[in-house]
Sequence to fold (189 residues):
Amino acid sequence: MGHRWLDRTRSRFLADPSAILIFEHSGSVHPETVPEFLELAEQHSHAHGDPVLVRKRLMHVLVEAVDNLSRHALGILNDASFALLVRDRSGYRLATGNAVPYATGMLLSHRVEVLNLMGQEDLKEHYLKVLAGNARSSNGGAGLGLLTLARKSAGPLVTSSDPLGPFTSYFTFEMRVGGKNEDPDRPAA
Fold:
């Protein structure tokens, strides 16, 4: 099922003639899969001479985004997940998608809208407050992952939540790391 969103996203990302596919994955994402993605991305980043800051940001964003797939994909539709990383002349583009409960998709979209309105200093302050709080569980839930994605990505996070039925939706994240589109209001963290 996730192939529909993966194919659509891949087509958009690779429409740019400068785009290079780094990796794509469709299906369940297990914790042991994350290091494979990181290794592919890091090898590509080294080969293209990316500055250390870009490489570090890419690794932070990749860990959070892909780890979310392994932790939060809807059990019965776990195989519908995808992850896609592309490099173009403006840096890296990462997209992930998975099935979630409908309310979760709506809540995530709202949280991302709020985070996109915050500047880098506000994001950092909010991150530190959440980190100091005790709202976290072993599966997250406090929003630190979203905050990390917002702090380490270049520009706004893009989400979509497409209904699959009355209780389920397909949630996709898109983000950019490094390159020319670095948001001036979000300086290096």
User: Anything to note?
Assistant: Residues 52-72 form the longest helix (21 residues).
